[in-house]
Amino acid sequence: MDAVLYICHGSRVKKGCDQAIEFIERSKSKIDVPIQEVCFLELAEPTIEQGFKRCVEQGATRIAIVPILLLTAGHAKVDIPEEINKVYQHYPHIKVVYGTPFGVDNQIVDILIERIKETEATIKKDAMVLLVGRGSSDPEVKKDFHEIAQRLAHKGGFQHVDTCYLAATTPKLLDGLKQASESNYSQVFVLPYLLFTGILMNEIRTELKKWNKAEQEFILANYLGYHDRLSNILQNQVNKLLNSQGNEYDVYRYS
Questions:
Q1: What is the pLDDT of residues 132-180, one digit of tens each?
Q2: Which of the residues 15, 109, 241, 250 has an alpha carbon 20 to 30 A from that of 182?
Q3: Residue 247, pLDDT above cutoff 70
Q4: Would you kindly state where each structural domain of the chain is located, as residue ranges?
């Protein structure tokens, strides 16, 4: 019997975890699989071990494991596979297939444009966007983030979309804000590329208060969030996984 185990990041802020669970509950109705469980990588329960065990206890013989993450970095490549490998040793008879984060997708670009429009600000001809990511030392993250920024500029009709990060790599948030402040753009939309609310969102909100000036407007858009369009991406990924011939834990080890 097939099962899906959704692995969310986890947050110290309860609202962030609640948002993840609510998103999975909304998504379940689109996915025709009898067993569907949600768990967290860190900072919240159920853990990956608990989620995996729940699937097995309900009769799962094959589990599609999906990381509910935006980009492919250390969590998806190392942390989650390591945790699954530990659990798998106790259930070697279970077939396992491992998916990927949401990655680069035009539906995500559509969400970003929607978030900017939700600010209700009149978008000026010389508006720019500062896309703020969580950050990772993995070069693949920077590559994908840059691709998303380019697609946003093209599809959203913005003259310029710049990127910065909250941790682990450069340019940092302060660098991005400083560069935007020194530019000729009179309007700067600051767009957090985050799945859930929490400490990082508060950090952006606090910092942004310092940058508005008469000749240049900084506008904070809402974070990406668990939008319904992500459910569509998730549905496609689960279907692809379950149509694959993957088996055993080597399937979800990244090369």
A1: 999 888 889 999 999 999 999 999 999 999 999 998 899 999 999 999 9
A2: 109
A3: no
A4: 2-102+227-252, 106-220
Dist. CA 86–CA 235, nearest whole Å: 27
Q: What is the C-alpha separation between 13 and 144, in angstroms, rounded?
A: 27
- Pair of tokens at residue 198: 């929490």
Which fold would CATH assign to domain 2-102+227-252? Rossmann fold (3.40.50)
pTM recorded for the entire structure: 0.89
Q: What is the length of the chain?
A: 255
106-220 — its CATH code?
3.40.50.1400
Cα angle value 148/77/58 (rounded, 5°): 110
SS3 category, 181: helix
The rounded distance, in Å, linking the Cα atoms of 187 and 91 is 55
Q: Could you give the count of Cα atoms lying within 13 Å of 106 in the half-sphere of its Cβ?
A: 3
CA atoms lying within 13 Å on the CB side of residue 42: 6
